[in-house]
User: Which sequence fits this backbone?
């Protein structure tokens, strides 16, 4: 009998088709949502966490309760590179991404070592490491944990700029509107930041004997950005069409790997 799958995460999980109100009949906000998003096989369920409303203990409780005898897929956070670097004070920075060294380098920016950028990702990657260890400690019977990459950035500069206030708030928008002191991080730099961050996800997964699943190649354009047909109407997220593509990608991966512990696809 093929195992069922639980995909756990935060806002990126919405693209898998979780629907419904986040408000209880009492008026309180839900702290998580749980739905079947694909009948399978294998059956795939999604668990959307509102972590700001939950204690660390409850987060682990909810995950481990729903992960009973399932393959656990973490579509975990993944927006740190944008929350930290989407809008920057000028002059801006760039770096050579060693995994794709032929990518354009913006010479007008301050060129910093890749290791400096990598060091900035230590905290969120440490958080991922922490949660995997906490889940494993509570439920050592979970046989497979898969860390899934989050969607790549959107390359359409105008699309991104017009949606900054909606997702990042009026203060960020006002920074851009006050003159030339601040600017939106260039698309190619946003791509490098995402790629470096996902490389960190892969290393973290492998260091914990978990698996890493990269995004479906069909979701990327020739420059590596998210294809416009997969844009959600905001700065950072992908839409339901991408979610359907991801679910098929995940099913293909599980079919290909079977009971093995593959590290990537």
Assistant:
């Amino acid at each position: 009998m093929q195992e069922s799958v639980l995909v756990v995460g935060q806002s990126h999980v919405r693209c898998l088709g979780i629907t419904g109100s986040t408000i209880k009949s009492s008026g309180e906000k839900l702290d998580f949502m749980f739905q079947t998003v694909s009948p399978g096989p294998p059956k795939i369920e999604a668990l959307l966490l509102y972590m700001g409303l939950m204690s660390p203990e409850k987060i682990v409780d909810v995950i481990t309760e729903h992960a009973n005898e399932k393959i656990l897929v973490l579509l975990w956070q993944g927006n740190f590179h944008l929350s930290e670097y989407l809008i920057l004070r000028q002059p801006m920075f760039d770096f050579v991404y060693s995994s794709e060294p032929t990518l354009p380098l913006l010479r007008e920016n301050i060129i910093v070592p890749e290791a400096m950028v990598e060091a900035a990702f230590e905290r969120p990657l440490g958080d991922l490491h922490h949660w995997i260890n906490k889940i494993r400690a509570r439920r050592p019977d979970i046989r497979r944990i898969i860390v899934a990459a989050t969607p790549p950035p959107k390359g359409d500069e105008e699309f991104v700029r017009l949606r900054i206030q909606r997702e990042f708030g009026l203060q960020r928008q006002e920074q851009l509107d006050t003159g030339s002191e601040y600017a939106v991080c260039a698309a190619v730099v946003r791509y490098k930041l995402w790629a470096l961050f996902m490389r960190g996800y892969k290393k973290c997964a492998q260091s914990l004997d978990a698996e890493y699943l990269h995004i479906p190649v069909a979701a990327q354009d020739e420059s590596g950005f998210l294809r416009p047909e997969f844009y959600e109407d905001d700065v950072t997220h992908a839409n339901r069409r991408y979610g359907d593509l991801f679910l098929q990608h995940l099913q293909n991966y599980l079919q290909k790997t079977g009971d093995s512990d593959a590290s990537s696809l």
